[in-house]
């Protein structure tokens, strides 16, 4: 039997990208980066303080682990939830570092924290569900929510609460449409931590409302004045979604590897979603990461953490001298969120001038905050102390206002 084809309309409607793609704002820092690269191509020496990735090479034991695996010649899929040995190694890491028991069955290996955030929303977000997102915050979170037709809702946070939500602000913003709250600790762009007792209060409040807490702990290992913390050590934390990654502390950004700790009752559905979306996280990266928790790797990573701590000290002191205000001292990650309202009216213009006149690349606040982006500038100390000193010197010699 043949089917008659319907005649084509004389004029096909224009093929447009989906609305969610059309609505995406550009990353302003990418324009700055393009300009920085153009200046570099002209021979200018640019100090990069805009990039959110460690400047260290991947630690040798991790590289060697990948090389041993690749020498075997077979690079196949792994199970969707990840290599069992890596899930066990992560569970062991929680036991060794935090003294807590996390079943490997709750741990899913993902393509970076990004993959974990996407999977978390895939399993949690129904169309129209609202998510409270601290503002300033990591801009991609809005897009993970929108990918599943959820509604990102800004939850303004300021220096008074260390740029972190409180139980009171969450309660005040909650509506019947709210599905949950996303928190990052340490946070990007501010580097601030949420206090464990406040997080516990928020968690209790969410439990009473039937909401869900997603905690992004991607910068967990990079804290400077206290021991790393995890929300998983709070009482009743087995209903939280915890995101982590090998990108930052473990220095493996390009390997694309992270993990999600999920409540037991979601793991089967998450596994199915992972099977359909990505099949598995990159196999060589998973084998490489088996070496990430070894003592010789930890020695290297801890030395790097000490180097970040020194950079942070130098940068904070230098910025203070130059008139930048840092109202909440960053306790972790590798960012300083500086208030530049005493120096200029628009941080995007300042970022532009810093690049053109001082050869220092930074990120304007507008990329991270909904309301008063012009007031803020993010500086990343992902470059060494000598270069940070040089950047400060150039800023001192230029006229900033
Ligand atoms: C807070 C936060 N979450 C998630 C990510 C994504 O990281 P990745 O996918 O490399 O693990 C980043 C990257 O900068 C981040 O800052």
Explain what the structure shows:
The strands form three sheets. The protein has a seven-stranded mixed β-sheet, with helices on both faces. A three-stranded antiparallel β-sheet has the order 9-12-11. It has a two-stranded parallel sheet with strand order 1-10. The chain is globular. The protein has helices at residues 19-22, 28-41, 60-71, 84-98, 112-124, 140-147, 167-173, 196-209, 267-277, 283-289, 295-322, 347-358, 385-397; strands at 47-48, 107-110, 130-135, 151-156, 178-184, 212-216, 241-245, 258-261, 335-339, 360-361, 363-364, 376-380. Helices cover 39% and strands 13% of the residues. The model has no long low-confidence stretch (mean pLDDT 95). With 401 residues, it is of the alpha/beta class. The protein has 13 helices and twelve strands. The longest helix has 28 residues, at 295-322. α5 packs across α9 (267-277). It folds into two domains: 19-57 and 297-397, Aspartate Aminotransferase, domain 1; 72-292, Type I PLP-dependent aspartate aminotransferase-like (Major domain) (Aspartate Aminotransferase, domain 2), CATH 3.40.640. It binds pyridoxal-5'-phosphate. Residues 52, 112-114, 138, 184, 188, 216, 218, 245, 247, 253, 258 line the site of pyridoxal-5'-phosphate.
